[in-house]
Amino acid sequence: MVIRPDLHENNRLSWNAATVAHNRHKPDQAGFLRGGGSTLFPEEIGLLGAVQGKAVLHLLCNSGQDTLSIAALGAEVTGVDISDEAIDFAQRLSAESGIAGTFERSDVYPWLEKAASDGRRFDTVFCSYGALCWLSDLGTFLRGVAGVLKTGGRFVCMEFHPFAMIFDEQGAPKYRWHLRSPSAILTPATNSSAVWATSSAR
Ligand SMILES: C[S@@+](CC[C@H](N)C(=O)[O-])C[C@H]1O[C@@H](n2cnc3c(N)ncnc32)[C@H](O)[C@@H]1O
């Protein structure tokens, strides 16, 4: 596989827009974290294990809610994301919540290469939900992760199962993959019962 910085740049621009939209309707996130709230799921906490006093690197961290939730468990956290808006938000969230975290804006590929050559090492590298699908070369990404892990360190990755993306909230297929016309491909189904009707009519 080949790393595609051109696609990453498109993703940076679209994540800038998406991040503003996502955060606009989440009120008082700093107050939530300050009050002891966490955005981590119990299984993520379980896989991370005891992070007290550990150096944890969160890759593709978006706006830092999970990163700061890990910091609240006692870890020293570093978050990396390509989106300017996400990193600006994460830095503000850290300041406003009073939870320490370091956030660095970069494409993850050059960041991992430079961090490894600078001798930066982490006890745990974490990435979660909706991260892997943006990576143009998984092998290089995983070698990069290995390059910044301490000996015996842990890589924790929690992801959506790709199969889940096929269905809408009602459990009906979301995309008209079964249609042969090229124009139908990648057209989101706007009416799931119509999709079923078309499907069973074939
Ligand atoms: C769905 S979000 C991940 C959310 C994450 N689970 C969290 O803790 O909130 C995907 C993130 O990946 C980032 N991203 C996509 N491609 C990237 C790249 N090449 N390098 C670094 N970050 C990238 C996006 O900017 C976006 O913030």
Q: Count up the helices.
A: 8
Mean pLDDT over the residues: 89
- Per DSSP E runs of 2 or more residues, the count of β-strands stands at 5
* Radius of gyration of CA atoms, rounded to a whole number: 19 Å
Number of domains: 2
Measured as a percent range, the helix fraction is 40-55%
Low-confidence stretches: 188-202
Distance between the termini: 37 Å
Strand order of the largest sheet: 3-2-1-4-5
- Helices and strands, in order, run as HHHEHEHEHEHEH
Strand content: 15-25%
Query: In CATH terms, what is the fold-level topology of the largest domain?
Result: Rossmann fold
- Major sheet summary line: 5 strands, parallel
Which oligomerization state do the chains in this entry correspond to? single chain
Shape: globular
Using the coordinates above, name the CATH class of the largest domain. Answer: Alpha Beta
The gist of it:
The protein contains eight helices and five strands, in the order αααβαβαβαβαβα. It has about 200 residues and is of the alpha/beta class. It is globular.
